[in-house]
Specification:
This protein has a single domain, classed as NADH Oxidase (3-Layer(aba) Sandwich). The chain is built from eight helices and four strands. Bound molecules: flavin mononucleotide. Keywords: Flavoprotein, FMN, Oxidoreductase.
Length: 214
């Protein structure tokens, strides 16, 4: 099996340079990602792209809110308790992360979250508030498409819960209808050449997640 493709080369970047990504490139990425499959082509997603002064205001707001300890509530809540398999993978990811970064570097991982990864571009993905789990599946396909299309354009990204922790700071910048839920954010940009961006993740051995009958 070949190991060289945009799927295997892509990884999350968490510290972006201040080099902007031009709007035409970002639109090309989103346009390509719209080819994602969805239930009977429902395409239940919308995208809101923050750049320039808008993204600067969101950065300032986020630093202020995290700095003064304001509790954040996403519009789509993660589970309080995860099922054992994803929980075990999450634990392994945390161990991997803690082992990779030195004690001096660890605080920087938390800091960049507050800095929204210094991203020059953030795209927020919404879906109808009363959407089913199938729409969440579709929105995820659109989001992954954005990351892969970005990779094709030499742009890096990270999908992050952190980006949508304070929906009010996003809603005050866009006209997002009340019946849409802000589900995810994806930070996009050109990565700085540093250790934060060198973190790599592993995947479960295929045979642990696959049953074949023939
Ligand atoms: C729904 C979702 C939420 C995420 N939230 C965060 C986040 O808040 N902060 C962060 O640093 N990474 C976040 N990530 C990135 C994951 O940690 C990352 O995708 C995973 O560890 C696999 O690593 P890779 O993207 O480098 O392959 C999130 C990813 C997804 C899909």
């Amino acid at each position: 099996m070949s190991d060289q493709s945009i799927l295997t080369n892509r990884h999350s970047a968490r510290d972006f340079s201040d080099r902007p990504v031009d709007l035409e490139t970002l639109k090309a990425i989103l346009y390509t990602a719209q080819n994602a499959p969805s239930w009977e082509n429902t395409q239940p997603w919308k995208a809101y792209l923050a750049l320039g002064d808008t993204v600067d205001r969101i950065h300032r707001s986020h630093r202020e809110l995290t700095g003064n300890g304001t509790k954040g509530w996403t519009e789509v809540m993660p589970p309080k308790v995860w099922a054992s398999m994803p929980q075990a993978n999450m634990d392994a990811w945390r161990q991997n992360m803690l082992a990779f970064f030195t004690d001096d570097e660890k605080p920087r991982f938390a800091q960049v979250q507050q800095m929204l990864f210094n991203a020059p571009a953030i795209v927020y993905l919404t879906m109808p508030k009363d959407a089913s789990a199938y729409s969440a599946y579709d929105l995820g396909a659109f989001g992954y498409g954005i990351l892969l299309a970005a990779e094709e354009h030499g742009v890096s990204g990270v999908p992050a819960y952190e980006l949508v922790r304070y929906p009010a700071e996003i809603r005050q910048e866009f006209d997002i209808p009340a019946d849409e839920a802000i589900f995810m954010g994806i930070a996009l940009g050109y990565p700085k050449d540093n250790r934060l961006n060198q973190l790599r993740t592993k995947r479960t051995p295929l045979d642990d997640i696959l049953q074949v009958r023939q």
